Every structure is written in C-alpha cells, then in structure tokens.
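Entry 14. Structure prediction run on the chain below.
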Amino acid sequence: MKIVHINTYDIEGGAARMALGLAKHQRLDNHDAHMIVGRKSLKNDISSRFNPLPNETIRPFCESAKLSYFHFQGSHKLSSHPEITKADILHVHNIHFDYFNPFSLSFLSHIKPTIWTFHDLFPVTGFCMHPGDCTSWSQGCFPCFRQQLNDPHNPNQLLSMRDSTSNNLCSPGPALCVQLKKILYDHCNITFICPSDWIRKQVAKSCFSTMHIHVVHNGIDTSLFKPMDKIEAKLALGLSPETTVLGAVAVHGALDNPLKGGTHLKQLIEHIIHKHSNIVFLNVGSDKKNTSPFIRNIPYMENQQELALIYSAMDVMVHAAAAESFCLVAVEAMACGIPVVAFNNGALPELIVHDETGLLCDGDDTMDLINTVSALIDKPYQRQNLGKAGRERSLALFDFSKTHEKYIRLYLDEIEDRQKYPRPVKSFNLANIPAFIRTPEFIKAEELKTGIKVEKQETWIGNKPIDAFLDQLSPALYKQFEPFHTKAEKVKQIFSLRNAGKLEESLDILNDLIPKWPKDMTLMRTKGVTLGLMGRDEEAIKSLKKCLKAEKPLQDVWLNIADIYLRKNDIKACRYALETFAGIDPNLKGFNHRMGLLCMAEQNFSEAVTYFKIELQLHGAEESLVMLQRIKDTHM
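Output returned:
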C-alpha cells in the first residue's frame, strides 16, 4: 500500500513524531510510506518538502485579518504531486503554521481516499489550537480576543479572555474562517480521526458537531521507551545518584511555555528547592544556557534512545499543561517506568489512572501540584509502584504497534469503501466563495477535481480580489474588515516604495501606521529594516530590539539584526545574533542562508556551502542556489 502523510514538520512536535512513527512502522511492514511537509529537517528520503507559494497579492490582508493560510497556493498543486498521484491513501495531520491552504483538502480528498487526524482543535476553530478559557470558539469564534494562539512559540499564547482589552482591534477573520471551514468540509470526502476521546468531545461541542469521528490513541515505541537503570541514567547525565530529579519535556522547554505549564513549574521549583535538598529539574527541549544550579536545560533531540535515558534519570515527571489533545511525553515517561504528576486537564485522565499509574491534580491548582510532587518525593516506594503500573498500562494501551494496526485497518476500510461506493463530486458554488480564495491555482485545482471548465467571470478578479470581497459584504462586516484592508494596502505600498529606493516615503507611512497599530510588531520590524537600509543602524537596531521585548515578541528579528551587522562587517555581532536565533528555530526560512553569507564573509567557503545546501533542501531558496554557483565559480 502506498501511503502519503501530510504535515507541517517531519520531526518536530507531537504531530510530526506521530506521522514519522507511522511512516517508519509502515515501511517496516512493507508498505511504501512517505511524508510531504512544509518544513523538512530530516536528511533521509522518508520526507520531502513542497513549496507553499504564498500569493503576495492577498498575503498582507490574510495575515492582517487573521484569515489563516488562505494565501498559500502551493498545496492546491499537490493533486498532481508524483507521490500523491501514486498514493493509495492520504493521511493528513496538521495543516496549520504557514504552509497549507485548507481548501486544498477538497481537491485532495476527491482524488484519493483521505483520513485526517486532529492533533489539536485548529480544524474546528477559526484560529487557535487550544481555546483555553475562551468559549466563543464553540459558537463560531466571534469575537476572538486570543488570536496570538496561532504562534506556537509565543510566550503569551495562553492570554486569557479576561486579559484582553476593549482597545484591541479584534479581527472578524477567525469567525469568517469558521464559516469557510463549514463550506469546505461539506465539499470534502474525509474520514476524521481524534487521538483521544476528550478531543472528540470538544469537536462535538463545536459548530461541527455532526462530524463522524473515530478515536485512535497515539502510540509510542515501548521497545525504546523502557525502564533503564536509574543510577546509570543519572550518572550518564552527570548527576549524582542521590539527586532527586524532576523533569518536564516540551518543544523549546516547558519552563518558557505557558501552554505547557511554565508558570506553574517555575513556582513548583521555587517551593521544592526550599523544602527538599539536592533537587534538579530537567527542562528538556530548551536550548537556553544553564544559569541555575537547580535547573538543567537540555536541547531538543531527535534520538529517542537519548530521550528515554533522560526520562529514566527522572524520579518524577511533571506535566503541567493547560490543554492536551493527547500527551505523548506523559505516555513515554510512563513507558520508562516514571511516575507522572499532571493536571486533570484535557486527555490526561485517559492516559493516567489517578493513584494507580500516576497522580492527577485539580485543574490549574498550583499549590495542589506543589504539594503532590513534594509528597511523592518523600515516598520512593509509591514512586516505584506508580512507575511499574504506568509501564504496564503503556504496554497494554499505547504501544505503537497497536496504533499502527488500527490505522492500517482504517486505511484498508477507507480504500475498500471508496472502491465500492465512489464518492460524488462536490463542486463548489463559486458565488459562495470569497474572491480572495478564488485564485488561479484554486480554479485550476477545482477544474481538475470536477472535470468542468470554470467560466472566466467566476475566476480571479484582476489584481483587486480583496476589493471584490469587501464589496460583497454587508455594511456591518465591511466596517469590521476595512481597517485590515487599509492596513494591508499600506504595507504593500511600503514595500513597493522600498523596492523603488524611496526609503523616506516608506518610513513616513510606517510612522503613520505604527501609532494606529501599536501592538503589531511586524510593522516595527519593517521600520527597523527600513532604517537599516537607510544606513541609520543604531535607530534600526533599537526598533528591532523593541520587537524582542514586546508583549508578543518576534524572535526572528534576530535575523534582521544579523543583516545589519553583516552589512557593517561586524562579524562578531552578526554571529552572536544568528547563534542566538539558532537556539530558537534553526530551520526557519532565511536562517541557513544568512549563516552561509556569514561564513562567506569569514572566508569559510566549505561551511558556507553546507549552510546554503541546507537552506535549499529546507526551502528551495533560489538565492541560496545563486550563492552556491558563485562559490563554485570563484572559490572551487
């Protein structure tokens, strides 16, 4: 069977680990499995990247109005991708984080049997993955005050509705996204999967309550995640066998991630180190330098055997997440025989049996968490019994072989059902589709799906699709969307002027916009870059550093700061900026290209070639190809 998985990443994050794990198991079972991703990190052939192709005509408006990912056009071309044309079935995972247009699901699910696993709630909300204490998502996401949830690395991603102010201009985009998803799913042929009963119940509360959903628990490799000698594990990490080791595991580390309970964990550490002696907390996933004798930051690792060793060194694993659709790290720790203390949130009660395989604390009660962990530190026999029972439960319910078998049966049933009962073609009524959705790529994919040529007047409306969309709105909706359109047009004008060398004029527009949108750090970044191009380097860096200190920091401005230092030939400062960002997201588009330019400035051409090749592999960047050719022509 030829199986194609679609996901944002090929290794980073829970969805990627599940997709990759399935693909590996499927290959071992003599199936032909492949991953198509938005961001490729693996160097082997199990995954390949496609070009997201953002449409620059509509991109500023979609980003400003929080119309999530409708400006990406590359996924509309996947219907003719060679891996997909050969596939027997498609398995969709995460489609969010800047690479995939949701409407592509209609085209793909018509040409191939398709299943979609919901790894979070993005498929049924207008914007966010974990709504937290927001209730408007179940009624259609309006009003939406929590729009920063789209950023997985934003330290304020758990902003409460109560923390929002009436002065924030709230986009109606998420509410429109819900309406568009309703239209979209009515024109798909997809079987939906949830990794937990909890997330299935959340979907049932939403505007999409009529969805028929299967539940398939995520799985782990229990032959890798297994109990090891605790003393040897501690010694391998340079820890004393007498040290009591607590820990948490999350992308970028749990301590700096409120979604993973960072605030609770910091308070826990503060209390525990004063009550107990010889304590160390392992903050697994963090690239930060170690500055506390009580906290050991351990970077994210691809090697699962190393991760299993780290779990085995823990005496207690603490998971303080506010929401989890499953929780791979809890199951991994249980499989290693480590007791898990967690909040009674999300899917955790499905995984952990309280007082049998772990301990569950009330809601977000920090003191309950502190008291529970503190008591468990003093009870080694209870830790041992909980860990043993957790190992048995993980073997019985969460071994990856069981997950693999369930998905294979689902695949076969889906393929057989599609062959027995061919699905009707569900053509879009283009009059109900906003003008900015009806791009040339959308129309071509719709024609391929239906076999019917679309009338010219139904297609892309010149270069003014946003104007056409606004003209179709009621006066009330027009009033809500118009400020975002005005802003987007101003942003396009800024870049047009900048490209024409009219830097003063572009700066004037920025200085007019920023007071009106004071929390939009992308405008501040654009100002910093513009000042840098004008040679006003100190002002530029000052503006860019404001983005790092903002309520919603833009960490990738380190790349813009590096650009300024490289132009100044300040190699040391440029390297500092890039190495700082390397600990945040070394696979972001543009990072490896800049590292290549830095290496060229240092006359290290062999290392420059390595970085340009990585950029080319990850993002298909033509500018990196140009630099590779230049090095070949002049230095090799």
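DSSP finds 25 helices and 13 strands in the chain.
Filed with the rest of this week's runs.
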